[in-house]
Amino acid sequence: MSQPEQMATSANVAPGNSEAVKAEIYEALHNVYDPELGVNIVDLGLIYGIDLRDDGFATITMTLTTPGCPMHESIGEGVGAALQPIAGVTGGNINLVWEPRWEPSMMTDAGRAELGYW
Fold first, then answer.
1. Residue 74 belongs to a domain
2. What is the DSSP letter of 34?
3. Contact (CB, 8 A) for 83 and 58
4. From CA 30, how far away is CA 51, in angstroms rounded?
5. 0.70 surpassed by pTM
6. Is the dihedral of CA 12, 16, 18, 23 positive or negative?
7. DSSP code at position 21
8. Looking at the domain assignment, is residue 47 inside a domain?
């Protein structure tokens, strides 16, 4: 995955509506799964932040479970595809970071349950 990876989408954010659009982005990211683990990237704790400019350009700050994750391209493509139908998002990129380093404690309770961490 290039850093940052560009995502093309359409529409504009209505003034004062950025929090609603960010919430919709976050919800859409629940549909992007790590293909090896079978858990979505939100419940895995891979999403560190969502920034949305007034013009609708979104920056998703995230990590992967390991720096050498072989599924990085498919996860990046999944993020782009998840954002395309969201009204108010005009485009975006993925800011892939390695600090803080991901660890299993970053998963939600739902993610831990799916992986049997109970």
1. yes
2. E
3. yes
4. 17
5. yes
6. negative
7. H
8. yes
